[in-house]
Amino acid sequence: MVLQLGLSGQPFSGPDIGGFIGNATPRLFARWMGIGAMFPFSRGHSEKGTVDHEPWSFGEECEEICRLALRRRYRLIPHLYTLFYLAHTKGSPVVSPTFFADTKDSRLRTNESSFLLGPLLVYASTVSDLGVHQLQHVLPNGTWMNFDFKDSHPDLPALYLQGGSVIPYGPAHQHIGEFNPNDDLSLLVALDENGKAEGVLFEDDGDGYGYMNGDYLLTTYVAELRSSVITVSISKTEGLWKRPNRRLHVHILLGEGAMVDAWCTDGDSVQIVLPSENEVSKLVSVNKNNYKIRMETAKSIPDMENESGSEGIKLPEIPVDIKGGEWALKAVPWIGGRIISMEHLPSGTQWLHSQVEINGYEEYSGTKYRSAGCTEVYTVLDQDVEQTGVIESLKMEGDVGGGLVIERNISIPEDNPKVFKIDSSLVARNVGSGSGGYSRVVCLRIHPTFCLLHPSESYVSFTSINGSKHDLLPESGKQLFEGDFRPNGTYPSSISFNVLFYIEVGCHQFYIFR
């Protein structure tokens, strides 16, 4: 989502850390924080009724990871702020896909573990039982120097700086209000194969429109290796702002996180003597060993914990399998009874675009998107098990208020294993005083989000009550079917329903009201 929005011209975005819907586990929340702290927009947010999503709600290990992740973000604020300036003036995305660094490498187009933050590459583990240090990192061609702030952890992303780049960073403040232009400024330098590097820093007062009148300072820092001496200096500046009186701390990356550094006054040139090849080898070896020790001794984050009075820790629920014939389905009763996986076994095709908390196959009881029935906990009423772990049918129901429940039965019939059936209905469980009444408009809204391999060739077909057949093509747009033109089915008359059938084709989403 963040990458797609960035490519579409919206650079300021980020998902709700921990997930808006449903309950995060300690490891999920910690890893999400590690990634989320690197996104342009970084915020934890969850819907009402979920467990507490504060970092300390998931245990000490998770809290520590979140602390490290947020300290990283605040140290990199000067770099992030500069990227937003470039997005504003040049239209470049703040976050971009990894293949932007090497468009000819086809491997990078399917890599879902990394992204670019300018010349900074963020690489995370997407394998639940493997830390980031246990993965084989797929990097673009060229020079990429890994580094950290002495904060590496198996559940935090690894960081790489592209050769030829200079990025600024500062101290890890508690909040933006603590930042002061006179704070020490640090530069992280990764030389390219020619021994050169360049980067920019944008500064203004952080508020208002003074920058439009030139009230800012844009500094270009360059580094160059000659003989065994690296010189870091300012090549050009722009803007009316006076350079703050501050110290400059320059770090030259050598490999495996090892570095040499020097101090000077910002605005002055600084020269750093590059260690001998033997000394560099020793520094790299020591740093590599220290990194290994940090990873091996880091406190692991439990992926599940028994409930123990803490509002933020619950046993993660396990999806229910419905497998038989040509289909393997997965349903999650604890979040709307949704189907999150719909795999056609002979072809290996996954029909649904889904996360556990959103999309997939959903059903609601109102006309509004994600109305009652979408996220409620469903109770499993019955399941037919052919053998241990394999289920051929699943029946469940969820309370949607007003004395109503949604009943859903998912089955794979023995006489026709090429298909599966979803039978859903709104059922009145209780009436009279205290039931909530039926003053609201209720309906059965079906909302599947399909992965269409050939969208232009896909269509929806159904038979109406009167026997007429309908094919809705992508160009059909919105269609309304009432009376005997509704899909063939049972429509109770004991309750006053506003009954309609609606499909939108072409956007890969289908909404059906009954």
UniProtKB/TrEMBL annotation:
Please report which protein family the annotation says this sequence is part of. Belongs to the glycosyl hydrolase 31 family.
What does the entry give for GO biological process?
carbohydrate metabolic process
InterPro entries (alphabetical): DUF5110, GH, Glyco_hydro_31_C, Glyco_hydro_31_TIM, Glyco_hydro_b
UniProt-listed SUPFAM superfamilies: (Trans)glycosidases
PANTHER family assigned to the protein according to its UniProt record, in alphabetical order: ALPHA-GLUCOSIDASE, HETEROGLYCAN GLUCOSIDASE 1
Organism (species): Artemisia annua
Name all Glycoside hydrolase family 31 TIM barrel domain ranges.
1-83
Q: One MF term from GO for this chain?
A: hydrolase activity, hydrolyzing O-glycosyl compounds
For this entry, the protein name equals Heteroglycan glucosidase 1
Protein keywords: Glycosidase, Hydrolase
Domain DUF5110: residue ranges: 185-252
Domain Glycosyl hydrolase family 31 C-terminal intervals: 91-167
Q: Which Pfam families match?
A: DUF5110 (PF17137), Glyco_hydro_31_2nd (PF01055), Glyco_hydro_31_3rd (PF21365)
